[in-house]
Every structure is written in structure tokens, then in C-alpha cells.
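Protein modeling request. Please complete all fields; requests missing the sequence field cannot be processed.
Requester role: graduate student
Desired output: 3D structure, C-alpha cell encoding
Chains: 1
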Amino acid sequence: MGENEKKDDLFRFVEYSAEKAERTGYSDYSYWKSVFQNFLKKKSAVVMAIVFFALVIFSFIALHIGKYDYAALKTNSAMAFQSPNGEYWFGTDNLGRDYWCQVWYAAQTSIKLALIVALGECVLGVIIGCIWGYIRSLDRILTEVYNIINNVPVIIYMTLIALLVGQSFTIMCISLIGFGWLTMARNVRNLVMMYRDREYNLASRCLGTPIWRVLVKNILPYLISIIILRLALSIPSTIALESTLSYLGLGLGIDTPSLGILLRNARNYFLEHPYLLIFPAVIVSLITVTFYLVGNAFSDAADPRNHV
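Delivered output (308 residues):
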């Protein structure tokens, strides 16, 4: 009897407290907080992100600290092909115009183009990809549309557009978005098909949940890492494609300078005057490499499977 009393002294009933119970079950996990914490652990990606943003910011500052205004540039054949010096920091081109303001103005144009096209491809690709993957009756039709568009090289589309419609910043944006959504849509479609028949999605549909809500709430969170990766890769690929098209004379109009146009103009003179090619080529390389590395790192950080 005495032993039972001693055992009873070792235990006691705890009164129920709703506040303590809530505190016990509380988790301070935040998806985006965890994403940035994982991203910041990758020091090389952080450095590349700083380099990219510094380059973008400096492209706006450079035009204000330069000695010449791009809008007021005039041809001066007597000053043609001046090597970089104290007066002309990046030298002059074949027409005697300051190359510093041309390079940084062109960098702004290329970066704006890349951002607009990347966002446009992302929005259009995600919408079409979700519809493509979720609605079974549209799968065959959208697959055929994808195959028809994807099997023709982009260079042919852009050549026809340049000849029939014209060349401008707006036309370039619409054209690249019109053909660039394919990769995003295909990736999203494949993932939506994987997740659409999971038990919780079937239960949601049985309860009468609208399709758009199932896509947005149940499926889209699983696609974030892929969307971020494609968005990040689209920016350098757009700049590279624009540079290639402009080099071939199929890109932006002559009155809209870009890094691709500067590279095209430098092809006839870079052997004697290499600085005409080096400066725009270095900026293109920095943008493409840094954003590619940052995009990969951020995509890994956005994957919930990498969160602790």
C-alpha cells in the first residue's frame, strides 16, 4: 500500500490549457523565409546576385556620370575610332560617337527586353501549362499546337516577322513571348499531370472545389521551383537570342540600340579596334552567367524538399 502511494506521488494530472496546447503545436516555418535562408547559404550565388544587381543599377548611373548624353550624340568622323582615354572612357565608334553612353544605354534596353519577355513567358506558360495538364480533353489539341510551333526554328519565325511586320522593341517583345512560352508550358503541364490525381485533389473535386482553386491552392505550390528556374534561365537566354538576332539583322530596329546591335556593328572593325567588341561582349557575358547561376541556386532553395 505504501508503495502505491509513493507511485501516485510521482504522477499528477495536468490541467488542460488551450493556450499552451496551441503554443505546443505552433510552428514558425515560413516558406519564403526558408527559401531565402537556403539561398543565403550559397555564398557564390549571393556574390553573383550582387554582381548582377550592381550591373543593372550601374547601367542607369553610368549615363548620368558620363560626359556625353546619348540623345545628343552627333557623328564626328574626325574623332572616329578613338581608343579608350580620359575624354572617351570606352573610346568612340566608327562615326566618332562616344561609346560609353552607347554601351550602357544598350545594356538598359537589353535588360528591359529580357525582363519583359521573361515575365510574359512565365505568365503565359504557366496559364497554358496548367490548362494543358489539368483538362484532359485539351491535351491532344495543345500537344499538336506545341509540336507544330516547336518544330520550326525560331530564326525562321523571326525572319518572317522582321520582313512582314517590322522591327521594334514592342514587336520583339511580343514575338519572343509568342514563341518562348513553349518550354514553360511543357514543364508545367508535365508536373500538373503528376499532381492532379493525388488523393487530396480528388477529395477537393468531390467536395465541389472549383478547378481554378485546385490549381492555385493545391498544385501551383509544387511548381514554384520549376517556374523560378525557367524564369531565371529565360533572362540570359533572351539576351543571348536578342544579341544573335540583332547580329544577323533580325532583331531590334537601328533606332533602338541594344547590346546585340553593338556587337553586330563591331564585327567589321573588332580586329583593328577590339574594344568595340570587348565592352558589350563582357556585359552580355556577365548578365547571362550571373543570372544563370543565381537562377539555379534560387530554384534549389525554392524546392520544399530542400527545406528542413
